[in-house]
Each structure stands twice: as structure tokens, then as C-alpha cells.
Amino acid sequence: MESSRKFFPAIAVLLLLVTATEMAPAQARECETESSKFSGMCMIQANCDHICKTEGFMGSDCRGFRRRCMCRTQC
């Protein structure tokens, strides 16, 4: 009985460490919208990124079958 009392705090600390490492930090949601200034097919990511940043967005991706320039921002 005495040995179980010695191990209980160690087990409790170990359990807390395991649960703390499993929790991921919350991330902000990102929304996408098609660029209003980009024209043509989006073939070069850097061009799309530059246009989206001039429109005030934080990033971009070339997406879809038609290769549209999609700008990203936090929702």
C-alpha cells in the first residue's frame, strides 16, 4: 500500500505531461477568395502571391483545373 502512494504523484505528473504534449495550439482560420486583379491562368506562384499582396491579402495559391489565383486572408 505504501509503494502505491509513492508512485501516485509520479503517475499523475506523467499523465499531465502526456496530455499537454498532445494538445495542439489553436490556429486562425483562413479564408480564400479569387483575385480580382489577376488575369489569365495562374502558372507561376510568385506572380499570384505578388498580386494578392498588392490587394491586401496575406498569401495565395494557384488552384483548380482552370489554375485560378486564390488569395488567402484570416477570417
Describe the structure.
The chain is an alpha+beta fold. The protein has one domain: Knottin, scorpion toxin-like (Defensin A-like). It contains 2 helices and 3 strands; from the N terminus they run αβαββ. Strands 1-3-2 form a 3-stranded antiparallel sheet, covered by helices on one side. The protein is rod-shaped.
What is the name of the CATH superfamily?
Knottin, scorpion toxin-like
Query: Order of strands side by side in the largest beta sheet?
Result: 1-3-2
Compute the gyration radius: what is it?
Answer: 24 Å
User: Topology as H/E string?
Assistant: HEHEE
CATH class: Alpha Beta
Q: N- to C-terminal separation?
A: 55 Å
Name the shape in a single word. rod-shaped
Overall pLDDT score: 83
CATH topology: Defensin A-like
Q: How many structural domains?
A: 1
Strand content: 15-25%
Give the biggest sheet: 3 strands, antiparallel
Total helices: the number is 2
CATH architecture: 2-Layer Sandwich
**In percent, how helical is the residue content?**
40-55%
- The overall strand count is 3
Outline the low-pLDDT stretches: none
Structural class: alpha+beta
Domain Knottins-like: 30-75
Signal peptide: 1-28
Keywords: Disulfide bond, Signal
Organism: Oryza barthii
Any descriptors?
Defensin A-like, three-stranded antiparallel sheet, 2 helices, alpha+beta, 75 residues
Helix and strand layout, with pairings?
Elements lengths: L1 H21 L7 E5 L10 H10 L4 E5 L4 E7 L1
Summarize it.
The chain has 75 residues and is an alpha+beta fold. The chain has helices at 2-22, 45-54, and strands spanning 30-34, 59-63, 68-74.
